[in-house]
Amino acid sequence: MSRNLILGAALSSLVLLAALVSFVWTPYDYAALDIPNKLQPPNVRHWFGTDHFGRDMFSMIMVGARTSIAVALVAVGIGMALGVPLGLTAAARKGSWLDEVIMRGNDLVFAFPSLVIAILITAVFGAGAINAIIAIGIFNIPVFARITRGAALSLWEREFILAARVSGKGAARISAEHILPNVANLLIVQGTIQFSLGILAEAGLSYVGLGAQPPTPSWGRMLADAQTMVSFAPHLALIPGLAIIVTVLGLNLLGDGLRDWLDPRIRVARA
Fold first, then answer.
1. What integer is the mean pLDDT of 190-208?
2. 3-30+47-270 CATH pick, 1.10.10.10, 3.40.50.720, 2.70.70.10, 1.10.3720.10
3. 76 close to 191: Cβ distance less than 8 angstroms
4. Distance between CA atoms of 212 and 131, rounded to whole angstroms?
5. What DSSP character marks residue 175?
6. Tens-digit pLDDT profile for residues 34-63
7. For residues 34 and 118, what is the distance between their CA atoms, to the nearest angstrom?
8. Is the pTM of this model over 0.70?
């Protein structure tokens, strides 16, 4: 295994463990106010210090990890569940009107970044984690559709696919039984990358007030709340910023390591 895979798995597991533990235990109640002890720097009682309301930052980081992972995971799931079938269909119908409709629809979604989509959604339905999931998920659909279509097109001309067509299998069956298993490795790696981008997107949406709403902690909103207090309480911005950096770095290293591990050509080249 590569060092990237090991380090990425370790960092990602650390964040995931913090999120899972937060369901059953946090050092303090993340929503409990303790005004007399507000803005404390990291110390023995509060490992990451306290915020401007006296809330324990370590507890908020743990619950914030849960929020970020949940939003990104569901959003990536939406993108894969809808984008992969669209990409397989477009590849199977290459050059047809259906292929053209799917690809032009992807171009249309790409024209609107997830933040713009989120603004449009929240203008109608209001801000919240669910709407952030929908916005990020919609943006992920064309990503997976394009990746799947591009990988599938190169397989449709292969001998084993031609043999499957000669045996009487239809396009849908070939896509499910032969194409999808051969592009699964690529989709797993891309899913890891999109997961890290989903963490960033969730933090960005929360920063501008479009993500998870109070009292649910969110790393992006913690950064937004800290921006006016950086000069006298730098830990308020430093800690959630480091949490985002560690999570995204871990997922990117994990994706890079998985690509090397799952692609036999790269393994052979490095051997």
1. 93
2. 1.10.3720.10
3. yes
4. 9
5. I
6. 999 999 999 999 999 999 999 999 999 999
7. 34
8. yes
